[in-house]
């Protein structure tokens, strides 16, 4: 497929998400237009990059559907200059979108080295490699060296909210995370750490993510 055709298809996907009210802010819309999903899918899947469905990536994982990524980014209410941690790099697509919105460095943790490498190459192709720091490890423990964070975005499903992630939020900071008792069904939680250290949790409906595996997640 020619790049121009891919760009036209991608533009229509973004505008459809806007019409449906899933993309609500201009900054998320602009980021989606600047960071098309085709840079982050497997080469054989480019022709489906604009389709609003998850797609397989190496190691049995998935790149999320565009509407899911938009929902999480809108909930996160990212601002320029925020300190953001992502857990679950996968293809690197969501990481690049975060970098595009906050215009500064992003820290992202991936447990599977093969995927960290896949993401690194994709981010290079898309022009975001210099802004993204990929850490290979167990993201359920967060990433203490760069804490506290304004936002932590988790793109895998946890059985419960990992305590270290709450501890690594700034007062007023938010954690966006799918939480549920089942491996492939969760509710999307928005957890805000209040000034007094307590948390406020708002639930935003059912989602389906691959499991978050680690010390404060599912057993591998
Ligand atoms: N955000 C990704 C994207 O845009 O392509 C999609 C991520 S995929 C749905 C979930 C990712 O979380 C997988 O790459 C998986 O290996 C990773 N993961 C699962 N448990 C993890 C953990 N404890 N720490 C870091 N990454 C983890």
From TrEMBL:
InterPro entries, sorted: PCMT, SAM-dependent_MTases_sf
Statement: the UniProt record of this protein carries the keyword Methyltransferase: yes
Alphabetized GO MF terms: protein-L-isoaspartate (D-aspartate) O-methyltransferase activity
GO CC terms: cytoplasm
Active site: 64
Top-rank lineage group of the source organism: Archaea
Gene3D superfamilies linked to this entry: Vaccinia Virus protein VP39 (3.40.50.150)
Main location: cytoplasm
Compartments where found: Cytoplasm
EC numbers on record: 2.1.1.77
One BP annotation, GO: methylation
Catalysed reaction equations from the record: [protein]-L-isoaspartate + S-adenosyl-L-methionine = [protein]-L-isoaspartate alpha-methyl ester + S-adenosyl-L-homocysteine
UniProt keywords, alphabetically: Cytoplasm, Methyltransferase, S-adenosyl-L-methionine, Transferase
Similarity comment text for this entry: Belongs to the methyltransferase superfamily. L-isoaspartyl/D-aspartyl protein methyltransferase family.
Role this protein plays: Catalyzes the methyl esterification of L-isoaspartyl residues in peptides and proteins that result from spontaneous decomposition of normal L-aspartyl and L-asparaginyl residues. It plays a role in the repair and/or degradation of damaged proteins.
The protein's name in its UniProt record: Protein-L-isoaspartate O-methyltransferase
Biological source species: Thermococcus piezophilus
Upper lineage: Archaea, Methanobacteriati, Methanobacteriota, Thermococci, Thermococcales
């Amino acid at each position: 497929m020619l790049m121009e055709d891919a760009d036209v298809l991608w533009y229509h996907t973004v505008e459809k998400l806007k019409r449906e009210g899933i993309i609500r802010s201009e900054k998320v819309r602009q980021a989606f237009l600047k960071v098309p999903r085709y840079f982050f899918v497997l080469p054989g899947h480019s022709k489906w990059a604009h389709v609003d469905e998850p797609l397989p990536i190496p190691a049995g994982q998935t790149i999320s559907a565009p509407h899911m990524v938009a929902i999480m980014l809108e909930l996160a209410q990212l601002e320029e200059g925020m300190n953001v941690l992502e857990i679950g790099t996968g293809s690197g697509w969501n990481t690049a979108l975060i970098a595009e919105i906050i215009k500064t460095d992003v820290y992202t943790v991936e447990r599977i080295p093969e995927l960290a490498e896949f993401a690194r190459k994709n981010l290079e192709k898309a022009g975001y490699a210099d802004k993204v720091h990929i850490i290979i490890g167990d993201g359920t423990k967060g990433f203490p060296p760069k804490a506290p964070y304004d936002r932590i975005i988790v793109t895998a499903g946890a059985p419960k909210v990992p305590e270290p992630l709450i501890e690594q939020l700034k007062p007023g900071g938010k954690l966006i995370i799918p939480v549920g008792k089942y491996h492939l069904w969760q509710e999307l939680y928005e957890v805000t750490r209040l000034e007094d250290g307590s948390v406020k949790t708002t639930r935003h409906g059912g989602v389906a993510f691959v499991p978050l595996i680690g010390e404060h997640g599912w057993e591998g």
